[in-house]
Amino acid sequence: MGKFIDLQAADGFVCPAYVAEPAGKPKGAVVVLQEIFGVNSHIRAVADGYAAEGYLAVAPATFHRAQAGVDLGYTAQDMGAGFALKTAIDALPAPGVMQDIEAAIAHAHAASGNGKVGIVGYCWGGLLTWRSACQLGGLSAAVSYYGGGMTGAEEAARQARCPVMAHFGDKDHWISLESVQAFQRAQPGVEVHVYEADHGFNCDQRGSYDANAAKLARSRTLAFFGQHLG
Fold first, then answer.
1. Has 48 been annotated as catalytic?
2. Domain extent at residue 122
């Protein structure tokens, strides 16, 4: 359904992005931020899913400043490679990868016919979604799925510039329920949902996939985008 295009960031860096277009005129746009596994088949399917709902979907390759063409699976070896790439991107001088996300937002806005733009991200992409909601302009809504590091004190001290929804699993061994509760206290304006599920519950290619939690989170996310991007 989709295709890769090139985006140019403010510093001149060219970043690929997977773009999925809806059948008719877009009712808005959604920027999709990858996990630590690249813009792989799952993330492309997520983007296709938002296009099927009528949104123009843009998934920038946020690892591209460290390595081109990252498309990992979910083995222990893949996870190690993904963590190493995430570490490399995190070590970039600011604003680093945020410039590529900003370029994706700008493209989404223009390509959707100046429609409103939302952003959604998973795992590392969930953290970047939160940071985007707090730091970048041009967003009308943001949805984070199990954003790793998002519930720490430093991140919880940020202030969002658009409405935010966040999904977490109560069995997540990377993000403690206590830290989620602390984030809720620090961010009463964020709509937080907790599911009886593990980290990565939205990904049907992972052992931690939970169909019920994924379906409910998706319905809430689509309603949220429908409210703020319509």
1. no
2. 3-229
